[in-house]
Amino acid sequence: MKVFVQLDARDGASVEEFQTPDSIAEEKLVWKYWSEGTLRDINFQTDRIGVILIFEAGSVAEVRGLVDAFPFVRSGLLKVTGLQQLAPFVGLAALFDPAHFA
After folding, report:
1. The total number of structural domains that make up the chain
2. pTM, rounded to two decimals
3. How far apart are the C-alpha atoms of 102 and 41, rounded to whole Å?
């Protein structure tokens, strides 16, 4: 299943606060999840300090455990502000419903 995760910097955090030895440990863990195929997408947010992650895992609880292992989450510099299972969009199926062709 796909799981959406939003991580936001704690209130008042600056970009400089992320320039610590923890940043190397954070990136190594990101690479581990990426190379294992668990982390599928990662993007910076443009309106705040934070990231959006898409995981592929067996459960939301499994993803929560992976995210909780991030050093910046453990230290409180990043907080989980969104975590939810995603489902495929099936709305386009209506285009092929014969009732729409009458």
Report:
1. 1
2. 0.87
3. 41
